[in-house]
Amino acid sequence: xxxxxxxxxxxxxxxxxxxxxxxxxxxxxxxxxxxxxxxxxxxxxxxxxxxxxxxxxxxxxxxxxxxxxxxxxxxxxxxxxxxxxxxxxxxxxxxxxxxxxxxxxxxxxxxxxxxxxxxxxxxxxxxxxxxxxxxxxxxxxxxxxxxxxxxxxxxxxxxxxxxxxxxxxxxxxxxxxxxxxxxxxxxxxxxxxxxxxxxxxxxxxxxxxxxxxxxxxxxxxx
Length: 222
Hints:
Helix content: 55-70%
């Protein structure tokens, strides 16, 4: 179904009067993607609609579940979502590049103090600098050696593993790989939040709404 101004207004009205939950939710409280689908077709589903970028949709599904409730239901988030719904699929590589830059340059460096304290600081900083599958695998192995001693290190290991999967997928220039990379990088952000000492501060610092905005409004990236 086409994402018309009428459908967009219907989505805006829904967002104004309903709470967005973590998870699929219900018709009375639907997640981000489900809210878009309710406006489009009336169906409660988290299948990414054809009018929306799949790379952006995959990232939205993970990040909206992971971010704090007040952030997901903020005025800023609810003003962004109706614009994301009509992004289409012509610029998937560009949107993925924005997400990858955020992950390597903003999210994973947040765990550098933890990595230093647990003995895998060098491998972690190498991963953030090199931004490669090989470096992410090395960081994951180093974090794994510390994982038995601390839950935070275990979450850092999961984040590095997800980053490695995403980096590996991103090397393949096709739509399936782009979707897989987007999902894995967003998942890495969720794991990184688990490793952080203060989740609320972590999410405020990495600004997940900001990266979703940049993925949507590509012309603002310079």
